[in-house]
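Contributing new records

If you add data, match the layout below exactly. Sequence lines come first and carry their own label; structure lines follow with theirs. Keep one chain per record. Anything else will be rejected by the validation script.
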Amino acid sequence: MKPILRTEKLCKTFSNEGLQQHVIKNLDLEIMEKDFTVIMGSSGSGKSTLLYALSGMDKPSMGKVFFGEEDISDYSNDKLALFRRNHCGFVFQSIYLLENMNVIDNVLTGALVAKKNPPELVAKTKELLKQVGIDEALWKKYPNQLSGGECQRVGIVRAIVNEPQILFADEPTGALNSSSGHDVLDVFTNLHKNGQSIVMVTHDLKTALRGTRVIYLRDGGIVGEHRMEDFETDDLKKRRESLQEFLNEMGW
């Protein structure tokens, strides 16, 4: 594997009433292609800030972010928007489906902005919805007619319909019950097994178990990482114990 993203001396500082808050500090990181990277850490450790900097949703205060060999750190806002549209998919804790659009139209909104072929996109959207367990009976329904887990799976399809090179997720199961969260995590696992590069922020052990690499942040820096094999249910106990031991060492 080769790096799809990397940072050099990445820093992010926020100003609050004249005080400087250094959230990310001189962080060097490589995100490998086709890897499932999980970012963990206590509240305020810089998890989401790092995700936004890696994805071009926010600009670093200092340092560089490379996508492949291309430095995106100094891109204009318009160029960053184009970068995100062409290369990235996003799944958030809040699902942000459009309430006045049905399932199919919600998925197609982002895809049509990218000026893809409409008939091909409709066919692809339907196939992806089937793959994540959203069957035809739900395609014409609106978000308020779906469960939270169903809405999040629609959100994932919207994020991947343009075939992003990397998928970013920020607490994607945070607002879901246990059963719905499990279904959504199964979707992420299957995407990764099919070669999707994923970067996910979570504070949840069950969610982190799905990754192949766990990075732990403290005070804006990486203090440890843990490598795992691809997720399989038959080694779940051993996997959980190994990750729990690592997190205990990190003071989680």
